Amino acid sequence: MVVFEVYLAPDADPGRILGPETLRETKAQIMTLDEARKVGFAGIPDPQGKEVRLIAVAKRDASWIHRALETSDAVALFRAHEVD
Questions:
Q1: Containing domain of residue 48, as a range?
Q2: Tens digits of per-residue pLDDT, 17-27?
Q3: CATH code, domain carrying 62
Q4: Contact 57, 27 (CB under 8 A)
């Protein structure tokens, strides 16, 4: 699994991070930090006042999500983390 740590652009709508087709085809899960903690993600960094979402996706679809995040105007910055 790959988890993308996504920092939203100022005043961005989190619902616009990924399009419906990308979500449907990749089965990517977008979570707030609180939602991620509730399902067992640990070691989540302090966002220091920034709005952050975590996107969990199968490794096979990580490049698709990477490209989508690069072109999303809702995204200011993102990092990918491989998780076993």
A1: 2-82
A2: 999 999 999 99
A3: 3.30.70
A4: yes
